[in-house]
Automatic annotation (TrEMBL):
Residues 113-206 form the FecR protein domain. InterPro entries: FecR, FecR_C, Ferrdict_sens_TM. The chain crosses the membrane at residues 82-102. It comes from Draconibacterium sediminis. The keyword Membrane applies. This is FecR protein domain-containing protein. It comes from the Bacteria. One of its GO terms (molecular function) is sigma factor antagonist activity. Keywords: Membrane, Transmembrane, Transmembrane helix. Gene3D superfamilies: 2.60.120.1440, 3.55.50.30.
């Protein structure tokens, strides 16, 4: 199996070997083997640096891109499922090179930026050993080497941090809030046009809003920052709901359809329009893991008495109530 992978990557396989390679890796139970081969190949590429991110999650980008196209049914849906798996094989080199942006002005630049497009995410390690999971439509900026005074990163979008314990303070700065930590694990959500959220799994963090208001979070607590007046509200939450995305899951617990749609749009890189204010306020409880956008919309139709259609001209899904 490893031999087939290497020959494919080197573009040195025969037609029969290529066919065997495809047959091996379109099977779901071979996903772990595929992931292991990708990681090994990546470690031996010339482009690897200590700060180079782990790009294994970018394969999910292919899955979502294919399923974000016009909804399909019947035999076509089965074919799409098969082609999704084949695509993960055919575009492994592209998945490594694309769907992820690592920007450097030059090799000696002090700052570097990691960005992820919609419907994709990535995991990487910062210079101090802290781990970062960067969600779709997000970017983070950090120095090639942290100073002795503080470890500063700037975030736009959403990221989960597992911070390496150190005497040097770790700071996450967003447009509306600054998060100060020493060693902890937490999720920060700070997309534009939304109220930022900081959810703490373990350790302790201090928050400072633009107005100067300060709050300290304990494990299991979440802070919601009002983007307009910079006030901070703290509440007890189930942290898994807010960090499950790093394990390729979306968890909704009694959330309004309006909020659900916002997360689905980023997750699948597709535009969704709610045609009626009434359905915007309807509540949903569900867990989504690897389902296509068609499967998700079918679920909404069944559980919430809705119907949806695909507008080819606008390239968006329109959700309407059943009257």
């Amino acid at each position: 199996m490893k031999e087939y992978y290497k020959k494919y990557i080197d573009n040195n396989c025969t037609e029969d070997e290529f066919q065997q390679f495809v047959e091996l890796f379109v099977k779901p139970d071979k996903q772990l083997v595929l992931d292991a081969n990708m990681k090994e190949h990546w470690k031996h590429t010339k482009a690897e640096e200590t700060e180079t991110p782990d790009l294994s999650d970018t394969l999910h980008k292919i899955h979502y891109e294919i399923n974000s196209q016009e909804p399909r049914t019947g035999k076509t849906r089965k074919l799409v499922t098969y082609l999704t798996r084949v695509a993960a094989v055919l575009f492994i080199p592209l998945a490594i090179a694309l769907f992820f942006t690592l920007e450097k002005s030059n090799s000696s630049a002090e700052l570097q930026t990691v960005s992820t497009p919609l419907a994709s995410k990535t995991h990487f390690v910062l210079p101090d050993g802290s781990e970062v999971w960067l969600n779709s439509g997000s970017s983070i900026e950090y120095p090639k080497e942290f100073s002795r005074k503080k470890r500063l990163v700037k975030l736009s979008g959403e990221a989960y941090f597992d911070v390496q314990k150190s005497k040097t303070p770790f700071e996450v700065v967003t447009e509306n809030v600054q998060v100060n930590v020493l060693g902890t694990a937490f999720n920060v959500m700070s997309y534009s046009n939304t109220n930022p959220e900081v959810t703490l799994e373990r350790g302790k963090v201090q928050l400072i809003s633009k107005s100067g208001e300060e709050k300290v979070l304990a494990p299991g607590q979440q802070a919601v920052i009002d983007a307009e007046n910079s006030s901070i509200q703290v509440q007890k939450v189930d942290t898994e709901i807010y960090s499950s995305w790093i394990d390729n899951k979306l968890i909704f617990r009694n959330e309004s359809l309006k909020d659900v749609v916002e997360r689905l749009e980023r997750w699948y890189n597709i535009s969704i329009e709610l045609d009626d204010q009434y359905i915007s306020d309807k509540k949903l409880t569900a867990t989504i893991e690897y389902e296509s956008i068609t499967e998700v919309m079918d679920l909404l139709e069944i559980t919430m008495s809705l119907k949806y259609e695909y507008d080819k001209n606008e390239r968006k899904l329109i959700v309407k109530p059943i009257k």
